[in-house]
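Input/output pair, single chain:
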Amino acid sequence: MGLTQVQLASLSGLSRQSISAIEAGSESPRLQVAQRLATALSTTLDYLFGDDEAGQVAVGVYLGYLNGRSIVRSASRSSALSHFPNGLLTSGESTLVDRPFVFVDGCDPILAFLTRVLSEEGPFRYLWTSMTNNEVIESVLSNNSHLGLVHYGDGESVGELPVGLSSFALADWNLVLATKPGSAFKNIEISSLGDESIKFALRKSGSGVRRFYDSIAGGSSISSEAFDGHQDVANAVRFGNYDATLTMESIASASELDFRVVQTQRSYLIAKNRFLDLPEVSFFIERATAMSIKKRIDLLAGYLSA
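Output:
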């Protein structure tokens, strides 16, 4: 799943030293500890520690349904790690062991609390997976997401969406150019994007922010790696691995970075027209778009500080 020992220790409630000892084979975990590890890794005790003679291993997955079709997702996507799997996958066959998930995908961390709050308020269980604009559109079109969230900046129109999709304005937010406090790059201008003397932490291709960067930098890619989410690029600058980045104002502020606003972005929920009458889709759209700006800000601030 790409986790470090420290991350796995945090997810399972163990110490890093215990994780290391178990990996090295110098410590045999008690049943309770083994179950914690299996749950954190979204799998079963038999898969981690057993000897399955039949060769069939049941792996935990996230399972949902859209218009009678099953959607099965790996439990390894980072934005889903706080949720326990609700299904098992064995030899290509999926089995639902808990309520199905409704998949709402996008890069905006507003989805972290919207999916949590609306899961608590209503009869449906929503799950967020982080995706770029392009990935969201493709996933919704291919019936692998019930809903998606995309965002566009000044002068860009949500009318760019493919035929058959509807959009619903959700929230406006500021895109900022952020640097570490006290950095020599604190006063760089937006025209500096693409400057080879400045190491930018970039989102991966297909994201709205990366499109904005490329439009100014002429497609130049100075970063040696591309990051999945807004928080990832903020952390890269915060910990001194990169000089500057483009991210959301709320994340830059929570990460205690210096920043200046460069553009206003608007986020939209999108869904296929043919699925708008599905109760799980209409419930999310109605509640999310009706939520007050103040409540969104309060919830997002709490999520980011946590």
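The mean pLDDT is 85. Residues 171-266 form a domain with the D-Maltodextrin-Binding Protein; domain 2 fold (CATH 3.40.190.10).
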